[in-house]
Amino acid sequence: MKTLSTYKRSLWRYILVALWLCGALTTWGQTVLERGDVVIVGVNARNGGCSDSNDVSEDIISVVFFKDITTGTQIALTDNGYDSQFNFFRNTEGYLKLQYNGTNTITAGTIIRFRLSQGSYKIKSLHPIYNNWTIVETIGSLILNNGGDQLYFLSPQNNWNSGDFNGEVLYGFSTSNWVTFNPGNSKQSNLHPHVIPCNYMNPASQTDYLMYVGDKTPATQLVWIYRIKDQDNWGVFENCTQYNSADALFEDIVILENDISLSVSPQILCEPGEVSLTFDISDSSQAYDIVYTDGSQNYSLNNITGSHVENIEVTDTTTFSLVSANLSNDPDSCPVYSDLTMQSVTVEVLSPTLITFDNDSICLGETYEFPDTQGISGTWSPASIDTTTLGTQTYTFTPNDACYSEASFDLTVVPVPDRDYIIELSNSEHNQGDQPFQLRGTYEMCGDDLFDLPLAELQALLAHFDLVLTSPTGEEIDLTDEYTDWNGILRLIAQMQGFVEEGTWQVQVFHEDDNPALPYSGSTCSWTGSIELIIHSSPDVGVISGDTEVCVGQSINLSSTVSGGIWSSENEAIATVDPNTGEVTGVAAGEVEISYTVGSDNLCPDSSESITITVNPIPITSPIEILP
């Protein structure tokens, strides 16, 4: 609901609004006035005898506007007659362009008074906060002639040029009858086509003192226009004193909304199609003629009551707007171009868009974000990503916009080898004791041993993973395909030169990229450990030297370049040996193996070396016969 202030304030307010609406918007947010948004409700064309400034030429014009007026709004006025030359205004009287500069918005319905005098313009409202108006442009002298004259409100977008004006004419008023022929003097004017049929007024009686005195109960803009246009609603006063006394009693009036609205369904199409435009008129007692536009062409609907639906084919995004509304079956019906509840609606015709996502994979337990939806809002199902469960899960995106189709992707969660998942392998056959060996920690081996990893125990692990050892010098050895022998044993052969190296071996267990059961496109899901491989060697027995023959009952000495070993005899019935010194004593004739053993201080076996000793019998000698 919009209120109109007192008549005095309303006249000034109306003029301000009219000026603002008619004027081109020069500042963002300025009000745009259409035809029918401004009316004159009072004219005192001879206020000189009542002027507080003793200005004998002073006129008072009271105006009402139907829109709020914001700062920067301009409006133009002229008292030149129209059609003094064909399609031209006269150019011997006045043209005035005003601008409202106040910071307070002038509320629709406020009455504004313009005080005009010869050679000067006094713009004054009964509301002091609305008095901030300035003259933007003036040509000639705008003052109403006694005994009859006209006044037009003009849009300020176009300039006045010697009577040529091709802008919008918003409202016309005459204190005498409009003429239907080219006016012969400055007190007469034709009606400009823009104000026909409704946006003008001339009272039945010619006088310099005219005021609207009709019904002032709340009404819509359309009803107010009808009231003000009706000559029976105007009063005639004899002088300025009577006029001003009545003007002082002019109370605020209320403007009701027209309650003519426009809606559309659907508002979004995924392809060209049909929409339903609904025109709603709250006043069911009246039939209306409606004009609406699709931005390129105007369309008319006649005798519309209540709610009316028009089905329309649209091929592109289109904005439908109400242009005007007026009562049906009335040749003098006055269309309104504003004050409509909902004036425009837009139908969007969108091109169907297909969203696609690539399937992906991720390691167990890692964080994964939903893929980019290209700014399209919607919901995911499931609503969150689970990376704690092995296998493949389908995630579906449902856009809020019906023009976009659902899209899905598969996310495969692949395992990451757990340290506890590394199988413990027994190497007791080649190690001292029965200590299990794992693919981590420290492993000691003798240089001549074999390192066997039974495949049967690795099947569960190798179903999803590869095992790779990296030697201390960086050589990679894929145990799953390079070192499998005919018996299905993964074997590291210690004596293979350049293969087994003492030091730290990296053990990497990782997911196979080409595993068809669980495809994986990212970096390897892996666990890396290490083996400290210590390769021992058997002790050196050195070089054994000494005689290899001894007689029964006699002794020889054996020695080695490596001390600390133990000497032993294969058969002490033939020869004995001192275990510490290596002294060999023959016992009986024959051959015997004398061994020298150096004990091992690691997991490698003791080292032994032997030498064959021959024990010779003592020779038997005959008695010596001495010949005579």
UniProtKB/TrEMBL annotation:
This is Ig-like domain-containing protein. Residues 566-600 form the BIG2 domain. SUPFAM superfamilies: Invasin/intimin cell-adhesion fragments (SSF49373). Transmembrane segments: none annotated. Gene3D superfamilies: 2.60.40.1080. It comes from Profundicola chukchiensis. InterPro entries: Big_2, Invasin/intimin_cell_adhesion.
